[in-house]
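REQUEST ID: PR-0412
SUBMITTED BY: lab tech R.K.
PRIORITY: routine
TASK: structure prediction, single protein chain
INPUT:
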Amino acid sequence: MTMNNSIDPSVAALLPVAKKQGIATVWDRYKAMQPQCGFGQLGVCCRICWKGPCRIDPFGDGPQRGICGADADTIVARNVIRMIAGGAAAHSEHGRHVALALLGVAEGKLPDYTIRDEAKLRSIATKLGLETAGKDIPSMAKAVALATLWDFQNQDHDKPCSWIESTLTGKRLEKLAGLQVLPHNIDAVVTQIMARTNVGCDADPVNLVLGGIKGALADFNGMCLATEISDVLFGTPQPAVTAANLGVLKEDAVNIALHGHNPLLSEVVCDVALQMEEEARRAGAKSGINIVGVCCTGNEVMVRRGIPLATNYLSQELALVTGAVDAMVVDVQCIMPSISEIGACFHTEIITTMDDSKISGTTHVSFHEATAADNARQIVTLAIAAFRRRNPQRVTIPDFKQTAVVGFGAEAIMGAMGALNADDPLKPLLDNIVNGNIRGIALFAGCNSTRITQDSSFVTIARKLARNNVLLLATGCGAGSFAKHGMMTQEATLEYAGESLKSVLTAIGTAAGLGGPLPLVLHMGSCVDNSRAVAVAVAVANRLGVDLDSLPLVASAPEAMSEKAVAIGTWSVALGIPTHLGTMPQISGSPLVAELLTETAKQLLGGYFIVELDPERAADKLLTTIDERRKSLGI
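STATUS: complete
OUTPUT:
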């Protein structure tokens, strides 16, 4: 199998360095795994019990049922919804963590945190139907926290989770209720998926997939509350100019890379690092402390603080190969265990922080919100000590970085459009969608995968959609791809946007005081922040008096890889959004499950999966889908 590893020039510069030093990277391990298990790629292997593992012969010559009698349809359905449960658990545990922190702040138990966006807190309280009149900020915060935590506790199966009920269109809620897929309790729904896929339980693939959709909607609920409460605690993103790619590392600074997903840790490290600048200079770091981001923690601090993004998921190891990272601080999710081994090849401190997410061979600083500042000082102290051990002869920082204009949450987008129409900020967007200046909207999300040349599909699809006047939004490692390749700049808008899209972005950006157009791709935050795009879509749908499945809106995950991506993609489909996958999902061993998630989903939900591995053809299919939606709307 031959394939370029990445289109990122930093990757091309550092892989030979790694090879020379005998350091194996993710691409080396991928090559060593070839050929990969064909049964696993089709999803037709089952290891839920110890009678197996079992596998179904996809060609019909061998076994067609597992030892218990489960056929390919049942095995594939069970496997895929267990992935959804894993994704929902990851996002929603993040959300629970943030909600508990809000409760701690409200009760005065977490002195290292404050409420930075009181207006957003009031807005959330109103959305959740809570009384706000006469309430002070702490009591309102406590009410929001308790109402949010109820979504993990409610035992009334007929009462949907508060956040999903307050977020979607009425028509969408009615459709989902009719299919009995509205979640009532995040924890319960995840548990139900694990229970129904156990030995001797649900063996109806249709019923299993519906259970998976319910789990995916629980994931959406958890993402909504995680994003919105994080804004309350740490500030709602606003446009900021920063940079991306490994060139953001500095030879004369203590480089601390924040990696993972949880802003409760990274935000405090950023605060404490500012206080310890002089200590770093005394250690010989002329430029003090340089905080950079990796993966979605990087996106969180990028959109809120303008912290530069070093890289996204697949090339996280190469940040260490530069020899310039003094500490990589990790919390949860998308962290390769290999960073421990690679960090040990250099002076780098790999610091784990969550007691339920440790890696052998690393330094562990047990992070707790009640001692957040002390924990952060310990982390920064370790980084400064590591800087003293750094070997300047082993530093190789690629001279590649791109400007990135970031921080476009729903509020920032509405604020920018408000510069054109303060009385009705949504009108410029609606008018330009209706008149065709904006042909449609595409949300890019998802991971990186070794099965795809890193970043290439993101860039190829986005450029083609932009040429055809599609407004581009991005989150997570997809956003990281665009940031690294200069597609979050005004210059990219001028170079790649179609004429009508360019005129719209220029009008909005100029009116908003940017001195030119909005960037070509609007960075909305981390992968948990996909709910921001839904908030904009719901506002448009409500204004037009239609459901989400009528909008010229599509989603794309060109390098989908993780359980979280499976959950996100499934709730996107459940909300009525056609969703492209650029990697082959592990469902093709069951034509029935594949049909359920494409054709049947389209009939029942309006959203459906579009599987297309070729990025050029994927862009064409997304454009066709957008045009079909426009035709149905009569625009």
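NOTES: The CA atoms of residues 508 and 514 lie 9 Å apart.
REVIEWED BY: pending
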